[in-house]
User: What shape does this take?
Amino acid sequence: MSTRLNQAQPYALALFRAVVGLLFACHGAASLFGVLGGAMGGGTIPAGTWPGWYAAVIQLVGGTLVVLGLGTRFAALISSGSMAYAYFKVHQPEALFPLENGGEPSAVYCWAFLLIVFTGPGALALDRLFTSRTAAKGDQDRAPEPSTPVAA
Assistant: This one.
C-alpha cells in the first residue's frame, strides 16, 4: 500500500495545489470584480485601496499561477506572506485564536501555500515543461565527456 501511495503522491500534490490555487483565485476575483458573491456581501474593493485591493490582486494572480503550476514556489511564497500579513494585521488584534477572530481562512491559506513552497508543484505543472526543456537544452549544448578507464 505504501508503494502505491508514494506513486500517487505527485498527483495528489498537484490536485491539492490546483484546488487551493483555484479557491484563492476565486476569492481574489470576487473582491476585484464582484463575481461569485463579491467582496463583503456583494461589492468590490475600490482600486488602489490599501491593503484590500492589493491583497485581492495577489489572490487572483497568485492563485492563478499556482493553479497552472507556473512559477509555483514563488507565487505560493508571495501568497503565503500575503495571508500571514492579513492574519497578523487584520485578524489577530481582535483575539488570539483564529476561531475567535475570524482569521481561519487566512491562517489555513498561509500554511497551505507555505507547504506548496516546500513541496513544489507536484505533477501536471507548467513549471515542469520549462524545466524539462531547459534541462534537455543544457544536455544538448554540453559535449560528451571522454570516458577514462578505471585502474584495476
Observations:
- The first helix runs from residue 2 to 33.
- The two ends are 44 Å apart (CA to CA).
- The helical segments are 2-33, 52-68, 72-91, 98-101, 104-119, 126-141.
